[in-house]
Design goal:
The chain has 449 residues and is an alpha+beta fold. It has 24 helices and 6 strands. The protein has a 4-stranded mixed beta sheet with strand order 4-3-5-6.
Length: 449
């Protein structure tokens, strides 16, 4: 860039990130994140909403149109609300970044696995730089979905890296995507399709921005810090210290994976409920009431009698009721019990209570927006208490590789069988080896509706 800017500082960070410079543990995490995406995409791809979107975009011909292919893949994966996320940046980078990587690679002859992994790692870095700078205020006060407004520039970097753009072109692609992105969270209140389409839209814009930059189009150098730029537009309280000093963090290491098919803010609550049920041997019919104490963000999810999938995925009472009744919170259970009177009755036992302890905790450490204390009182008068500040699957409490593998096979196996699922898992685990990427892409190309 001609003038010093936050964007030029970010480009300096990206210049440090080539495949050979990426630490081994970061490469492993990139493959785990890709596998997690492929798992949720496979199951998401057979859902009715995904099938309608596939046809709306043009059916089979989108396989040769990376923008539309990525739009479909990211949206299909986001449907389950089982995809990875970044607690500090907020939102879901993996569906955008991995969909952009696979769709672009599938339409770029000769691309190598090393380059795809490099692109993915860079994508998480760019997403998280933006998300850390604008959140939590962009989400909580302005209603912007980071999956979209941070995902677009991340997808631009992913696509630009894979198609071989130079540094100036990637800088232009980032600026274009950051200039044109958007995505509002009203769906969290009313439900509806933008909940999952925002991920696909970010892919579409990011890949388009990379292709525009290839032909000399770009955006403002001060896109991030400018008076009418990204941070001032999206956030009432941006982190200017972080914004003005981009540094290499290998942000993919801070990504969490999900156990439950619902919004992340509920996961700590569900962990606490599950811990009490398992340790005490409780059953749903023994419970008199469940009090869930948390901050405002958790209280905003106190939705009773949700009438669509998106609202159900954002409901503390509903998901707690599912966990009590079935011992899990899967996509099929979330989608399949909206009219179940038993779940509706169990939901009434759950109260979500704003607690100043958790309000102060989130003020001190904004990333702990989902922390909760659960108090379960039984019909017999017994009371059990469990607190969880960080949900299982976060870097502080990560899943084992065995659990990640089981999740992957469980999701993909439902669609194509466990044997073929194991083959895809092996392809991803050895993506750098000759032929493994092509094998994976061939399999993904054949994932029809």
């Amino acid at each position: 860039m001609k003038n010093p800017s936050c964007l030029s500082g970010l480009m300096d960070v990206l210049a440090l990130m080539n495949y050979d410079s990426i630490p081994e543990e970061v490469r492993k995490k990139a493959k785990i994140c890709m596998a997690d995406f492929v798992g949720v995409f496979y199951l998401g791809s057979v859902k009715p909403e995904s099938k309608r979107l596939f046809e709306a975009l043009g059916g089979g011909k989108i396989l040769k149109e990376p923008e539309k292919l990525a739009l479909w893949m990211a949206s299909a994966a986001r449907l389950l609300d089982l995809d990875d996320g970044h607690r500090f940046a907020m939102g879901h980078p993996g569906v955008v970044i991995n969909a952009a990587a696979i769709a672009t690679a599938a339409n770029t002859p000769g691309v190598k696995g090393e380059k795809v992994l490099e692109a993915i790692v860079k994508g998480y870095e760019v997403y998280s730089y933006q998300g850390r700078a604008i959140n939590p205020s962009a989400y909580l006060q302005r209603g912007f979905d980071a999956t979209s407004i941070c995902g677009a520039a991340a997808a631009a970097v992913v696509a630009g890296t894979i198609i071989g753009l130079d540094e100036d072109q990637i800088s232009d692609a980032i600026s274009l995507a950051a200039s044109l992105c958007g995505g509002l969270n009203q769906y969290a209140i009313e439900g509806s399709s933008p909940k999952y389409l925002c991920a696909g839209w970010a892919c579409n814009l990011g890949i388009t921005a990379a292709n525009l930059a290839k032909y000399g189009m770009g955006g403002p150098a001060g896109i991030f810090e400018g008076r009418l730029g990204y941070c001032n537009g999206f956030s009432p309280n941006p982190n200017l210290e972080l914004l003005n000093n981009p540094t290499l963090k290998w942000e993919i290491q801070y990504v969490y994976l999900k156990k439950y098919s619902c919004v992340r803010r509920i996961h700590a609550t569900l962990d606490a409920v599950e811990q009490i049920f398992n340790s005490q041997g409780l059953f749903a019919d023994q419970v008199k009431e469940i009090d869930v104490f948390g901050g405002q963000f958790l209280c905003d999810a106190a939705i009773y009698q949700p009438d669509d999938l998106v609202k159900a995925q954002t409901s503390v009472p509903y998901t707690v009721a599912l966990l009590m009744a079935y011992g899990e919170v899967s996509c099929d259970l979330v989608d399949g019990n909206l009219d179940n009177p038993k779940i509706a009755e169990l939901s009434k036992l759950v109260k979500v209570i704003k607690d100043e302890e958790f309000v102060r905790l989130a003020e001190k450490e904004p990333s702990l927006w989902g922390a909760a204390r659960v108090e379960i009182t039984t019909i017999a008068g017994e009371k059990y208490v469990e607190q969880s500040n960080v949900a299982i699957g976060d870097p502080e409490n990560p899943f084992s590789k065995e659990v990640i593998h089981k999740k992957f096979v469980g999701l993909v196996g439902q669609v194509i069988g466990n044997e073929k699922a194991e083959g895809i898992w092996s392809n991803i685990c050895s993506l750098e080896q000759s032929g493994e990427l092509e094998q994976l892409l061939t399999t993904m190309r054949n994932r029809r509706q």
